[in-house]
Design goal:
The protein is built from 12 helices and 9 strands. It is of the alpha/beta class. It has 2 domains: about 140 residues, Aspartate/ornithine carbamoyltransferase (Rossmann fold, 3-Layer(aba) Sandwich), CATH 3.40.50.1370; about 160 residues, Rossmann fold (3-Layer(aba) Sandwich). The model has no long low-confidence stretch (mean pLDDT about 100). It binds phosphoric acid mono(formamide)ester and norvaline.
Length: about 300
């Protein structure tokens, strides 16, 4: 039986959900992962439909939502934003109103978080944020699921995020703080996570008894870390900044030297796609400490749990 506690809820940012709610998703994700491995049917969303609006490219998010919905017994529609009337000026609110009449849930990947919030306000079905310039909450679910799977606990886990203090960093930071993991973001000056999000994470850490730190020293960040996490230095929509970013972020890439500073049980995570020799070396990505491929797989299981819990 699927808990009814979260039915109808949007998942727009990690900070909107409390730790118990996140754990509900993670526990169901573990169970659904086992069912899928054993080929035991779990058609919790039979007859339901998910619309997936994409205004940016995607490999993992698109495939994991689409396959996940299929495995749950439902169906999904890939809606390229440019092919919708949205691309010709129909408002996000009107789009949300209309899609609510056809669908049971919407996943959206776009630029402005305000558009996701506007869609959710207009829609009377659950809206799931599949990445904005500010947040990537579904990624954070898979990230913390992978950490718990590999390290078997959140207690006493130190997570170091190295590189650009971006959307992925924001969602991961708040998730770690809510779930009681110590978090440090090591970024160059000018690439820190947003002050507002750091404030949310610190408030959550006060409740869970964990900590949130910022540093400009990659080695200090990696020191003693149980999880070394990184993401691309140039996110979607920032391509014209690429040369500057490459220069500014040099020294923050995860290589064997930085990894050696981590704890004995240290694992490496990366949300992917990766750029070898920039934020991570190919040796580390494919090395014995890498949990990256499990992490990518866990997008599927975590999102299936999320959809099963929120879609009515
Ligand atoms: N990590 C992630 O969201 O990957 P995609 O951009 O391929 O969806
Ligand atoms: N920060 C990256 C994440 C890609 C999954 C981006 O926004 O492009």
């Amino acid at each position: 039986m699927i808990s009814a506690q979260l039915k109808g809820r949007d998942f727009l940012r990690v900070n909107d959900w409390d730790a118990d709610e996140l754990v509900l998703v993670l526990d169901l994700a573990d169970r659904l992962k086992a069912r899928q491995r054993e080929r035991v049917a779990h058609r919790h969303l039979e007859g339901r439909s998910l619309g997936m609006i994409f205004q940016k490219p995607s490999t993992r998010t698109r495939v994991s939502f689409e396959v996940g919905m299929f495995q749950l017994g439902g169906t999904s529609l890939y809606l390229a934003a440019g092919d919708l009337q949205l691309g010709r000026g129909e408002t996000i609110e009107d789009t949300g109103n209309v899609l609510s009449r056809y669908l049971d849930g919407i996943m959206i990947r776009t630029f402005a978080q305000a558009d996701v919030d506007g869609l959710a306000a207009a829609a009377d079905i659950p809206v799931i944020n599949g990445l904005t310039d500010d947040f990537h909450p579904c990624q954070a679910l898979a990230d913390v699921m992978t950490i718990r799977e590999r390290l078997e606990t959140f207690d006493g886990v130190r997570v170091a995020y190295l590189g650009d203090g971006n959307n992925v960093c924001h969602s991961l930071m708040v998730a770690c703080a809510k779930l009681g993991m110590d978090f440090v973001a090591a970024t160059p000056e000018g690439y820190e996570p947003s002050e507002e999000v750091v404030g949310w994470a610190k408030a959550a850490a006060n409740v869970s008894g964990s900590s949130v730190e910022l540093t400009h020293d990659a080695r200090a960040g990696a020191e003693g870390a149980d999880v070394l996490y990184t993401d691309v230095w140039t996110s979607m929509g920032q391509d014209e900044e690429r040369e500057r970013r490459l220069a500014d972020l040099a020294g923050f890439g995860i290589d064997d030297g930085l990894l050696a500073l981590g704890s004995e049980r240290a694992i490496v995570l990366h949300c992917l796609p990766a750029h070898y020799g920039e934020e991570i070396t190919k040796e580390v990505l494919y090395g014995p400490r890498s949990a990256v491929w499990d992490q990518a797989e866990n997008r599927l299981h975590a999102q299936k749990a999320l959809m099963a819990l929120v879609i009515r």
